[in-house]
């Protein structure tokens, strides 16, 4: 599988790229690029995968993803049923050089510099209580010239002052710069997403990327900061959360559909990762929706 390096094309007179997306669904392949990405979800639901982490997104969420971080916004299956636009989002692609030389060396820019550094973990903010941010990001695509830079700096400054930022990962997300590394990680990622509900063994995964059992375990741990089994469990729990939100199956069905061979292990792993039992999680979701 080819390396999914995503090329952000800038015109000669641009220092940043603003894209307004109205699509049936998000671009569905794991990819990375050297630019920072700031995205506001105006309409859409699904999961954001950031390397070995997954995070549910919904309208009003803002995400900042650091340079060369493998990621993908993945919609639920219903988004692929037809060509009617179900995604409405704005993404801004930029680098530190977008603001000119030396901006982040001044003391007043210290908080923004720290914010961008934290983007290696992936950052989320729900802007449901940040109306001004939402208005700026909704209108930034219509701005021209230096007004775009000013608006982006204002957004980054407000985000740097927020007490409601969430780090998607507690550990630094590994960056991918080499084609072979990205191909191997992407192959594993795609295979797990397609087969998480079935038994998956390390031997078949290591064979998939033409590595020995030992070499693969070492390779995967070095690049994702966790074991493959931990990663697989997190994917399965993430999918279980999706099913719990949809509410179409009972908890036992969800456990087996998510790849767990027994209910008690599912509940134990769910509580370990999410902090509550599946039934408690579903109750909280239902209360929030009411």
What secondary-structure arrangement, pairings included, does this model have?
Blueprint: E1 17-23, E2 36-43, E3 46-50, E4 53-57, E5 61-65, E6 71-75, E7 87-94, H1 110-118, E8 123-126, H2 131-139, H3 146-161, E9 166-167, H4 179-195, H5 202-208, H6 213-224, H7 228-246, H8 251-257, H9 263-274, H10 278-289
Antiparallel strand pairs: 1-7, 2-5, 2-7, 3-4, 3-6, 5-8, 8-9
Write up this protein.
- The protein has 2 domains: 17-167, Regulatory protein AraC (Jelly Rolls, Sandwich), CATH 2.60.120.280; 196-289, Arc Repressor Mutant, subunit A, CATH 1.10.10.60.
- Helix content is 41%, strand content 17%.
- It has helices at 110-118, 131-139, 146-161, 179-195, 202-208, 213-224, 228-246, 251-257, 263-274, 278-289, and strands at 17-23, 36-43, 46-50, 53-57, 61-65, 71-75, 87-94, 123-126, 166-167.
- The strands form 2 sheets. The protein has a 6-stranded antiparallel β-sheet, covered by helices on one side.
- Strand 3 and strand 4 (53-57) form a beta hairpin.
- The radius of gyration is 20 Å and the shape is globular.
- The mean pLDDT is 84.
SS elements, strand count: 9
Range of strand content: 15-25%
Q: From the helix content, strand content and strand pairing, which structural class follows?
A: alpha+beta
In angstroms, what is the radius of gyration? Answer: 20 Å
Summed up, the helix count is: 10
């Amino acid at each position: 599988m080819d390396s999914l390096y995503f090329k952000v094309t800038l015109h000669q007179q641009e220092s940043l790229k603003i894209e307004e997306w109205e699509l049936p669904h998000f671009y569905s392949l794991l990819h990375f690029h050297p630019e920072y990405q700031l995205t506001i979800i105006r309409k859409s639901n699904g999961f954001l995968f950031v390397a070995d982490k997954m995070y549910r997104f919904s309208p009003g969420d803002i995400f900042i993803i650091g340079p060369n971080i493998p990621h993908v916004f993945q919609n639920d299956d219903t988004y692929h049923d037809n060509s009617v636009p179900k995604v409405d989002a704005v993404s801004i692609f930029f680098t530190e050089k977008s603001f000119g030389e030396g901006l982040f060396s001044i003391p007043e820019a210290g908080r923004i510099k720290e914010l961008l550094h934290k983007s290696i973990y992936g950052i989320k903010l729900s802007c449901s209580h940040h109306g001004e941010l939402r208005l700026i990001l909704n209108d930034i695509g219509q701005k021209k010239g230096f007004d775009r830079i000013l608006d982006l700096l204002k957004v980054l400054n407000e985000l740097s002052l927020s007490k409601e930022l969430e780090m998607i990962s507690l550990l630094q997300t590994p960056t991918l710069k080499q084609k072979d590394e990205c191909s191997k990680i992407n192959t594993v990622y795609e295979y797990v997403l397609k087969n998480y509900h079935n038994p998956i063994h390390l031997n078949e995964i290591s064979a998939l990327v033409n590595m020995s059992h030992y070499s693969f375990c070492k390779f995967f741990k070095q690049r994702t900061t966790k074991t493959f089994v931990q990663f697989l469990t997190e994917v399965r729990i993430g999918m279980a959360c999706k099913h719990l939100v949809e509410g179409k199956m009972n908890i036992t069905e969800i456990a087996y559909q998510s790849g767990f061979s027994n209910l008690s292990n599912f509940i134990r792993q769910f509580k370990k990762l999410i902090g509550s039992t599946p039934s408690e999680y579903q109750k909280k979701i239902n209360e929030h929706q009411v």
